[in-house]
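Ticket #4471: structure export looks truncated?
Reporter: QA, pipeline team
Priority: medium

Steps to reproduce: submit the single chain below to the structure queue and open the exported record.
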Amino acid sequence: MFSVGFISPISPECLPNDNLLSHLLQIGVPELERLVDLRKRGWESDSLNDHFRRQRNTADTADDGMNAMWYRKMNRVFSELNHAAHFVPCSGSLKFLDLGCSPGGFSLYVLSNNNDATGIGISLSPVQGGHHFLLDEYLMRRYELILADIIQYNLGPAQAEIGTAEMRPLPSEIGGRDLVILDGHYLRTYLPASSESPNEWDRHRLLISQLIIALRSIKLGGSLVMKLSHPERIQTAQLLFLLDVLSKDLRTFKPRTIHANRGTFYAIAQGVGLGTQSAKQAEYLCDLEGLWYEISFGGENGRGRFLTKNDMDFVVSEEILTSEYAGRLIELGMDAWIVQGDALYRWLARKGLVY
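Actual output as written to the record:
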């Protein structure tokens, strides 16, 4: 999630913060060492940067045909995820919530593979730069689409005063979900409902907003699927730790269907609310709501700010991550590192940059 969109010169993502990565490399993770070397070789060549720039341009200017292609591809991606973790039952009641649902490939998979499933999807309206929703008409009988800007939901602490008219309450019907899917990502085509220009830290607000909505809407023992990027980054590692201690089972999977050479992957948490620290779930949620308020209305001008290195220390500190959680983090990061490394190697080999 942190890799999506452009990076500002004042964004903390541009500042060196390689303590966790350095620790992982120091203790010896050959798969990560190989990936770091391949990334370095790629970024030393303009061709990799040009490749990703072309991908971004294609995504930003997608026509109906391209949207239809992504609809089918995302359906295949969710098939990969379910085959890896088996969280979509073939029958029986299944209420799910799909955040960032358009063009609808993930919802298509769930509804097509369980005739008893019913879903709600929330997606940015095309008027604001969102993708068109393409779910087949016959499946819409079991589905409700809500066109809304996720970062304009009021997700702050109950006692906080939100002084902006654009904020809206969460829809009450999204509660009690057996499955929550978090795949929303910041769109470079995004147009806020207000006349103001979007803030570069809105992508961080989107990340935290989705997690808050998930914890508010998921039922005890439900499943949560969340797209993340770069498990070796501090904030991603903290989010993995959070999902790990709140759920009965956490595994990760990097799809092979698309974006294999990029840093994105999916965390699949099952049995949410049944983990070793589930007694602290309400406390974690309260802290996330406070963080949402700070990155939405804090900062120098009261217009929000970027996430910083220590913002999620209430989940786990970097010291604990390196001293006590490194082994588990390596286990969770391995699939993403191997798959991206293999894909990058093949791509660089075709360009003659590795042999």
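Status: closed, not a bug. The export was complete when the record was re-opened. Leaving a note from the reviewer for reference: The radius of gyration is 20 Å.
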